[in-house]
Structures are given as structure tokens and as C-alpha cells.
Amino acid sequence: MRPANEAILVIDVQNDFCPGGALAVAGGDEIVAPINALVPEFPVRVFTQDWHPANHMSFASQHEGKDPFSLTEMRYGPQVLWPDHCIIGSEGAAFHPKLDTRTADLVIRKGFRREIDSYSAFFENDHETPTGLEGYLRTRGVERVALVGLATDFCVNYSAVDAARLGFKVTVIESLCRAIDMDGSLAAARQGMSDVGVALA
């Protein structure tokens, strides 16, 4: 068992982000078994789920004439428009069936406000609206967090950067993540994480 001040964050290992899903990440299902093996080593275990209403404003389907993966401007800045995914209560929003969630201390659901997307486990995309995760980790005495899951260049990246900015010591275990890598997004994410002190393991 790792020290009591360490937590693992398992980010968005959901059906829609795995092969066959609405927003599949290549190899997304390959990380499930090794994540199951690693999670019990940590005294604090948090899982996150993307959890969107069917009319979420980050969906291309809500913007006439806009295609998935195009950009639009939201009140909080640029926003990628996605295929409809991880709709509340749907099979796509469920955790991968082989992911062992029985070990989770806490499940954080994010992106449930229609007007704002939420990549990070800590804040929505306005970088102001908190999910409550920071307070939970503080009350558990957590000082170090390790991140695994999907996708390296979006939700893992945003979560890792926010954790570092909040003062946690952060490690991203890259072998237990998979990336979308859209237009160089993986290289940019890796650089951005390194710039704020995130360790890439």
C-alpha cells in the first residue's frame, strides 16, 4: 500500500471513450486490466465520469451547420464540438464493464451543466466552477495524486494541470492512458503538463 497521502484518479474510463463508443479513443480498453491491478495500491481512489445532458452545448448536434471536432466560441473561450457522448444514464456513459469500480471511494460526475463543458476532474472549463474534488482530497489528507485514464490530451491533461496548480504533487502514468491526439494535441498537452511540474511516468 502506498502512503496515506497518495490518491489515484481514474479518469473517464467509459464505454463511449473505448473502441465501439461514440468518441472512441484508440486502445482505450487496453488500460482497463492494468488500472484494476494498480488501484488497490492507493489508499484514496477517485473515479470520474463524463455525464452530459442530451442537449449539451459541447455537442456539434446543438450547433446548426457545425461538424464534430470543429471549434466554436463559448462564453468561457474556445470549445471543441464533440459527437454526442456520455449522455446521462446511457450505456455509453457507463464505466467500461471490466473496470472494477467497487474499489472507488468517490465517483465525480462532470459536464452535467448544459452550458459548460468539463474536462478537468477539479473544475469546469471556465476554470472557476469547482467539482468539489479538491475539498474531498484535502479532507482526506492527500498531497500527491497519480492520474490514469482517458484521454491523455484532454481530460487527463486538464485534471493534471489543475491538480498541479492547486499545489498537489502530480504524476500522469502515461502507459495507463490513451490519447485522441487531434492536430498535435498530445504533444501540446505533454508540454503543458511538464511546464507546471507534472511528472510524466
Detailed description of the structure:
- The protein contains four helices and eight strands; from the N terminus they run E-H-E-E-E-E-H-E-H-E-H-E.
- A six-stranded parallel sheet has the order 5-2-1-6-7-8. Strands 3-4 form a two-stranded antiparallel ribbon.
- The longest helix has 14 residues, at 152-165.
- The model has no long low-confidence stretch (mean pLDDT 97).
- The chain has 201 residues and is α/β, with parallel strands linked by helices.
- The protein has helices spanning 32-38, 133-139, 152-165, 185-195; strands at residues 6-11, 44-50, 71-74, 77-80, 106-110, 144-150, 169-178, 199-200.
- It is globular.
- Strand 1, helix 1 and strand 2 (44-50) form a beta-alpha-beta unit.
- Helix content is 19%, strand content 22%.
Order of helices and strands: EHEEEEHEHEHE
The overall average pLDDT, rounded, is: 97
Secondary-structure-derived class: alpha/beta
Cα separation of the termini = 19 Å
Query: What shape does the CA trace take?
Result: globular
Low-confidence stretches: none
Radius of gyration: 16 Å
What order do the strands of the largest sheet run in, or round the barrel if closed? Answer: 5-2-1-6-7-8
Number of strands: 8
Strand content: 15-25%
Largest sheet: 6 strands, parallel
Number of helices: 4
